[in-house]
Amino acid sequence: MENSFKDFIKVKKHFQLGELVTETPHPLTENLSQNSKKNLKLAIKQFKSVDELALEEFKLYLGTLQELHKNVRETILSGHKVFLCGCGATGRLSLALEFIWRQENKNEFKDSICSFMAGGDVALIKSIEKFEDYPEYGAKQLEELNFSENDLLISITEGGETPFVIGATQKALEISKKSPYFVYCNPDNILKKLVLRSREILENNRIKKINLTIGPMAISGSTRLQASTVQMLGVGLVLKNFNSDFQDIYEDFELFKEDFKNLKTDELDYFIKKEVQVYNKNEFIIYNSCKKSSISVLTDTTERSPTFSLIPFESSHENLMSLSYLVIKGENEKLNSWKTLLGRNPRTLEWSEVSGIACLNKAMEYDFSENSIQRRVEMGKQHIFDVSVEDECIKFAFHGKQVDFKTNSHFLGQQLLLKILLNTHSSLVMGRLGRYESNVMTWVRPSNYKLIDRSIRYILTLASQSGIELDYDQVCEILYSEMSKGPEGPIVMKCLKRLNCA
Fold first, then answer.
1. What is the residue-averaged pLDDT of the chain?
2. Is 430 exposed, middle or buried (CB count within 10 Å of its CB: 0-12, 13-18, 19+)?
3. What is the pTM of this model?
């Protein structure tokens, strides 16, 4: 799946997405990186204000979930399955939703939800390079999971243009008598204008569309933040209330929103500063998570890698260590730690196309049991950051301080509140470490065509702000040249320096 500069230039028009709302900078966070260093309390407040606006916008879409609620209910009660599909952040939220489902439905319905992401469960830990750029892989994964004519697919894509998710959606049309759903966060008119593959989906009357456009992200293009929050909330509320009245969705949303309003995110100030201090001393962190919080903690920590160009979670065969790692309290065996993380056995890909990088043997190179603590200690000094979800509380404990974030919410709501806390925490840690400028991801890892285009756009934008106008193709060639030297480092700033713009 290796691609060259010339390969990208041939298809660039299909991945130039700068006009999408989810790709534009948010006006409320123009100075986020500066505030993260000089006025952390204000940066935390800025971040929460963007989450708040996203939830206000999402509330307007609740009514559009009614038909989905009806179709999910009919599918499950008739003994068939609802499949959730995503890629990257939406893939991880799909897996998290299945985990939540299995925690709350330990009955005849426990296997009624089946989630998959581009690259299989191994991609939960580390993105499979370029995988999301291939629609045929989405179709193949869906078929391999025995998707049938009576099953329902819910496809989730923040941008509304991911080829993998579109491929799965089109295959579902061929197989099932039930119309698939397509959940996305950008305006139809912009998607139709920019992306042919999106236009084909949006203009197909057999596909049900749910548009959850809620505005830009707190860090531009970082759809692991607000976009994935509202998508997880929307689909999650439908699943939670599949066997109850639709009106209950409104009540659950208000309960969650009240919890969010009362969420004391300013308490993160201490933890952000302490985590940065650890990294500045070239030391490391183990997130010691309870079983209920493990998939949310893992999602945030693994998503830091492509967003901020960090070393991803190391396997048992690698010497380079990630800044942070997940350990699940009470687990003492590798495979069981995976089962606890997912709420089921791992689903991996034993394909020749991805031989050795998405298979079960690869998954077993990552151990989230307590055995990993000693392995990490032997590689460098570790600091333990405890995270847990209890009945009415999310607990953070680190470096002698514990904060209890009180909640009255349902389990879905707790997981989303934890997601928001972790997203805020990690984003501002990275801001203090200089991993973005203003609200632009200067350290983004261009691991697929969408992120390659994003990197090029950021280079063009920052150069233009310095009064220098550059050519897209010229910048693309420089980007590929820099990428060939290794994935680490501030790729955007490296290219600007090479172009004499920094």
1. 94
2. buried
3. 0.94
